[in-house]
């Protein structure tokens, strides 16, 4: 059994390995998700994203700051779900720190005045860390044959 500290580290390690997630925001009564490249800062308990001022997510976050992040590596059977609070800032120094090659697909440079920083402060996360697709299928088949439950790897809900 893992300690709380080990489980928290597992969450951050899985998010780092996966890298991209679906950011879910409220649009009134509905929920909308979109793919985002995550910049993790475990020591700050923060996940950062670059966003465009013209996107609707900034307005949605201003009205309803509770968000969800879903990290998924289906081939490796590794998943992390994060619930947290988001805020939007126009911190130009932080934009420059976070700006990387993938961001060039959306903006010419870090000096683009339309770039904003989304900061997610996680409240809690749940992770699933399976040994992989093939091993998981073999374990499920063995469990079905032996009428037992398969060991599908680690799963825990962690307060962050």
Number of strands: 8
Main β-sheet: number of strands, strand sense, barrel status?
Answer: 8 strands, antiparallel
Distance between the termini: 18 Å
Which class of secondary structure composition applies to the elements? alpha+beta
CATH level-3 fold name = Pnp Oxidase, Chain A
Gyration radius, rounded: 18 Å
* CATH C-level: Mainly Beta
Mean of residue pLDDT values? 88
CATH architecture: Roll
Stretches where pLDDT falls below 50 for ≥5 residues? 133-144
Helical stretch count? 4
Report helical residue fraction. Answer: 25-40%
Share of residues in strands: 35-45%
The dominant shape is globular
Description of the molecule:
The protein is α+β, with helices and mostly antiparallel strands and 160 residues long. Helices cover 28% and strands 41% of the residues. The protein has four helices and eight strands, in the order αββββαββαβαβ. It has helices at 4-18, 56-63, 92-98, 133-146; strands at 20-26, 31-37, 39-41, 46-52, 66-73, 78-89, 115-129, 154-159. Strands 1, 2, 3, 4, 5, 6, 7 and 8 form an eight-stranded antiparallel β-sheet that branches. The longest helix has 15 residues, at 4-18.
